[in-house]
Design brief:
- The chain has eight helices and 14 strands.
- By secondary structure, it is α+β, with helices and mostly antiparallel strands.
- Strand 7 and strand 8 form a beta hairpin.
- The longest helix is centred in the N-terminal third of the chain and has 18 residues.
- The two termini are 31 Å apart.
């Protein structure tokens, strides 16, 4: 990957200088050396996630799905008060899971309370090999039965239950087939709809908010989409090379103005694709037509076949 692209991206983040300095330092550390401990991994992951909210794909962390309907992903429980606060990160089956705070669950509309009846299959007991917090050692981890998948896990703290949400894999590829397996998506029968979203819409008060441009329920389209995604592998190097080639081909690619604010060129016509499951969970992928035939998500980039790419262009109008 082109590390300079990540660092240059910081110039486009609309945030205070202190935020930029902290994020830039964390990203430089992450790009220059492998973290030496779980604590370091958590720090890097959270820094990437916070920057990702403000700067879309170049930090590759806008891609892990919401519990109900979220503008980021499990690994970024952003709020004005949170700053760089780190949430506990658990490792299971080569994947990262982050504890979902009560504040986060409230803000995404999850008003329920996890009970013993919600506990599914027991999958492990926490130890120093799976979490860096000694206070959690010895607690049992279960599947969250209402969603019938490994996208949500429950830690039983002696009758006090905490939800952990899947972020991404760290030791195996974040391929389409691996992601779909986490969510137990077998076919289009598991999917209610796909929402095509413009990230920079406006509400009646002039505030920026996501705008749903299209709701797709066509079973044939969803079948084709899932079948294609299942075959996709991570082509991040190719993806970043495509960005680099595009920028070298034109010395000065003008920024685009969205809602009166300057943004980098590739955000023009950017779209989120929210795959809404019948069990209430949601996967989010991002689509940037200005770059080319790629989807991004789960710290990965996926190449789209020509037919699906043309279909996505049509449904994203």
């Amino acid at each position: 990957m082109n590390k300079d692209l990540y660092i240059a991206a910081l110039d486009n983040i609309n945030a205070g200088d202190g935020f930029k300095e902290k994020t830039a330092q964390a990203m430089r550390e992450a790009l220059s050396e492998k973290p030496k401990s779980k604590a370091a991994k958590i720090r890097v992951k959270k820094s990437f996630g916070i920057a990702g909210l403000l700067f879309a794909f170049l930090v590759m962390m806008i891609f892990v799905p919401p519990l109900i309907n979220r503008d980021s992903h499990y690994c970024d429980q952003d709020c004005d008060e949170c700053g760089f606060e780190v949430s506990p990160l658990m490792e299971y089956n080569y994947g990262y899971y982050e504890r979902l705070s009560e504040d986060f669950l409230r803000r995404v509309g999850f008003a329920g309370k996890v009970t013993e009846d919600d506990l599914g299959e027991q999958i492990m007991v926490l130890s120093q090999n799976s979490i860096d917090l000694p206070d959690y050692f010895g607690y049992q981890v279960y599947e969250y039965k209402p969603v019938n998948s490994k996208a949500l896990l429950v830690v039983d703290k002696n009758g006090e239950f905490e939800l952990f949400g899947f972020c991404n894999f760290f030791a195996v590829e974040n391929s389409g087939s691996n992601i779909l397996e986490v969510y137990n998506i077998q076919s289009s029968a598991d999917i209610d709809r796909i929402e095509v979203i413009w990230p920079y819409g406006k509400n009646a008060r002039g505030q920026v908010q996501e705008d749903v441009l299209n709701i797709i329920r066509n079973k044939e389209f969803i079948d084709r989409f899932i079948t294609n995604y299942r075959e996709m592998t991570d082509v991040s190097d190719e993806y970043y090379q495509a960005i680099s080639d595009r920028e070298r081909a034109k010395d000065n690619i003008d920024d685009v103005f969205i809602n009166g604010i300057s943004h980098v060129w590739y955000l023009n016509r950017s779209r989120y694709l929210d795959i809404k499951l019948k069990n209430g969970l949601s996967l989010r992928l991002a689509f940037y037509p200005e770059i080319g035939p790629y989807l991004t998500g789960y710290t990965a980039a996926y190449r789209i076949g020509d037919d699906l790419y043309n279909e996505l262009l049509q449904v994203s109008q």
